[in-house]
Amino acid sequence: MLTDYLERFGWSRYQAVDEPFEKEGIIYTGWRSSDDEDGYRLTIDPMVEKGCLSFRVPEILKAPLEENPEYLDDLTLAIGYINYRILLGKFAYDPRDGEVRFSVDIPIDENTFTYAQFVHVMGVVIKTTEQYAPKLRAIWSRRLTARDFIHQDIGVEIDRVRSAMAQMLRDLLEALEREGGTP
């Protein structure tokens, strides 16, 4: 079913692999945002024993504890902030090997996972990874601080709210004028 969904989604480059001691296997695939970038790997793992379908983008970056321990505060602050902001999925840091990954885990207890749900999850995985992975890499390489990233992100949100509120006010004033009222 998942390989069929990938094909319908337009992704023909994937590898379905059997996993030891599991009957459902795992799917490896990935994408590139542009030809200039390395791209991202994606694993789709139906974990029936846990009642979960996991979409994971592994190794967005490697941030080993011993490499730059003073940078980890900034990196984990940014990860925590991003996780607070997003609705679906999570970024995670593994201190054992320094892996930062993104994942969306969907419960699959007794329900059918539809193609529409698959498309929604793939959209979340791609958009969220492409939006935040470069920022996390910049923070780890010290081209950006977590504080600056958070302030920039909040500023974008404030601008978006301001713009939406201004448009609502213009629409309201136009509606009042059409009805003969005066503001």
Structure description:
The chain is of the alpha+beta class and 183 residues long. The mean pLDDT is 89. It has 2 domains: 2-144, 2-Layer Sandwich (Yope Regulator, Chain: A), CATH 3.30.1460; 146-183. The protein is globular, with a radius of gyration of 21 Å. It has helices spanning 2-9, 69-85, 115-140, 146-178; strands at residues 15-17, 26-31, 40-47, 52-62, 90-94, 99-107. Strands 1-2-3-4-6-5 form a 6-stranded antiparallel beta sheet.
Quick overview of this protein structure:
The protein has helices spanning 2-9, 69-85, 115-140, 146-178, and strands at residues 15-17, 26-31, 40-47, 52-62, 90-94, 99-107. The protein has 183 residues and is α+β, with helices and mostly antiparallel strands.
- SSE pattern, N- to C-terminal: HEEEEHEEHH
| Mean pLDDT figure | 89
Helix content: 40-55%
Give the strand content.
15-25%
Q: How would a crystallographer describe the biggest sheet?
A: 6 strands, antiparallel
Domains (count)? 2
Derived structural class: alpha+beta
Termini gap: 57 Å
Uncertain stretches of 5 or more adjacent residues = none
Order of strands, main sheet, comes to: 1-2-3-4-6-5
Keywords:
single chain, 183 residues, alpha+beta, Yope Regulator, Chain: A, 2 domains, six-stranded antiparallel β-sheet, 4 helices, 6 strands, globular
List the helices and strands and how they pair.
Layout: H1 2-9, E1 15-17, E2 26-31, E3 40-47, E4 52-62, H2 69-85, E5 90-94, E6 99-107, H3 115-140, H4 146-178
Antiparallel strand pairs: 1-2, 2-3, 3-4, 4-6, 5-6
